[in-house]
Amino acid sequence: MQKEVRQPQRWFNTADITVSHQSNLLKQLNHQRRQELFCDCSVLVEGQLFRAHRNVLFASSGYFRMLLSQGPDGLPDSVSATFDVFSPETFTVILDFIYSGQLDLSSHNVIEVMSAASYLQMNNVINYCKNFIKSSLDISVKDEESERCLSLSETCSFTSGAGEDASEQQQQGPCSVSPPPALWTRDNSRSQSSFMGKDPDQDASASALKTNPSSPANELSAEAEDLHDPQDPLYTLPGSERRRGKGGTKRRAPNSSRSNQHDDLDIQEARTQKAEKAEELYATLPPIVGVIGHFNKDSNPIMRFKCPFCTHTVKRKADLKRHLRCHTGERPYPCQACNKRFTRLEHLRSHFETIHQARKLVCRKCKCQVTEETGHVVCEGTRRYRMCTACIQEVGCDDIPIDGMEGPNEEPALLLGVDGEEEGDTKRSWMVTDDDDLAEDSGADLIIQQVDDSDEELQ
DNA sequence: CTGGGGAGGGGGCCC
DNA sequence: GGGGCCCCCTCCCCA
After folding, report:
1. Which of A152, A161, A394, A440 sits at a 20 to 30 Å CA gap from A54?
2. Which residues form the C2H2-type domain (predicted)?
3. Which A residues between 276 and 305 have a beta carbon under 7 A from any strand B atom?
4. What angle do helix axes A219-227 and A317-328 make, rounded to 10 degrees?
5. In chain A, what percentage of residues exceed pLDDT 70?
6. pLDDT of A392 over the 60 cut
7. Cβ-Cβ contacts under 8 Å for A447 (sequence gap 6 or more)
8. Which residue is nearest to nucleotide C13 (CA to C1')?
9. Is the pLDDT reported for residue A179 higher than 80?
10. CA–CA separation, A90 and A378 (whole Å)
């Protein structure tokens, strides 16, 4: 048997070498870009010319990938692209990120960078921006105390692994990102990312948001839910119903602390800050966040407006503004009767009519037609119906507290939103009232009032 | 457990 | 651009 002669092994950390190599390569490319060496692509942004390498742009941006692969077989020596939908400063941030892995985000540019990234189809940048915004919007009371202790900074820098493959980044999402050391704030009263402790895996991949509730794109919905954190005092309104999940309304927050003035102050403070955040987001929205949507039959692109927070696109800017409320949590339409707040006036109106009025002139029980005279409004917990006299008698007047029988000084008992509202025992909350009585209810007249969160009284 | 109904939320689109 | 309507979806409660 021949003895194997083993060569002494040398252990190389190939991962380190790879990273180092990629880093050096990127630095070289960036150096070449700054020297305008071998740049074969010109990008004109609002009149300002940027030079870059088409292969780098191709590798980094879906938009450029599409643009550069659309041309004829033989690509010209130089290609150019023109943008008017974002500013040169924004493109500088994007380009610097492409060539360095450093994304310089601040409160002033994050929205526009996100929109530009959306336009350029750079999902990794979108993810970083989303986390930046998400962290800055996260003002849950739960974390409030710890947040206050942390240091503040006006700007931050997201760093991706140098030379990291773009697609890989997209798959990894923000997990591969070093979280910002601190987050922007307007008043320096709070800061610091909370997403270090959260699952940051939020994929911004564009897929149908509505068609498949379990699709990855619907993580965006989950993210929106995060913004509607049930712990959020903005969301759990005093005396109002608490929402769990989309559309759910039946859970009520424990009212043990409702009378606590401190809590009210905290709620008010949080609401004010959230309103400011929403205001700031609106203020910093770029003038155009248009993207090329589908093509019409004439092969002309149809411009749509893309939400900077998710993949949703709309035809009209006004619709986008309306849509944005589901991300900002802004609820400018409070119900005067129960303080519950709504994103839209029509929802408030609908809520008022169904909850605080009983418009349908049919008996709830026997479905017969009733009139204003023969059909009484019956309150069952949070709901109001009309019932005919016969059905009321059938149910039994003894079991149904009738409005007007409770004494003239009795609180009109709009049960919704009243502190100490009873739960479970619905019989005790049954009421019958005539329309005239209803009109005397404190909340029976719908007063439409669009208010700032900051102005709203919490009583 | 399941289906119906109520309530709320969101999108599309017309006025 | 705002208001409003219609439609659909989701969640929850209840029988």
Report:
1. A161
2. 305-332, 333-361
3. none
4. 70
5. 37
6. yes
7. A336
8. A250
9. no
10. 59
* Through-space separation of residue A149 CA and nucleotide B8 C1' in angstroms: 37
For chain C, which bases have at least one atom within 7 A of a protein Cβ? 1-6, 9-14
* Residue A454 pLDDT greater than 50, yes or no: no
Q: Which nucleotide has the least CA–C1' distance to A312?
A: B11
Query: What number is the average pLDDT over the span A3-9?
Result: 48
Length of chain A: 459
pTM greater than 0.85 (yes/no)? no
Q: Which nucleotide is nearest to A221 (CA to C1')?
A: B10
Cβ A366 to strand C below 7 Å: no
DSSP3 helix / strand / coil % (chain A, rounded to 5): 40, 15, 45
Residue A378 φ/ψ region, left for φ over 0, alpha for ψ in the -120 to 50 degree band, beta for the rest: beta
Digit-coded pLDDT (tens) for A260-314: 445 555 555 655 665 666 666 655 554 444 554 445 555 555 567 777 777 777 8
Q: Is the CB of A290 under 7 A from strand C?
A: no
Tell me which of A180-184, A348-352, A401-405 is least confident.
Answer: A180-184
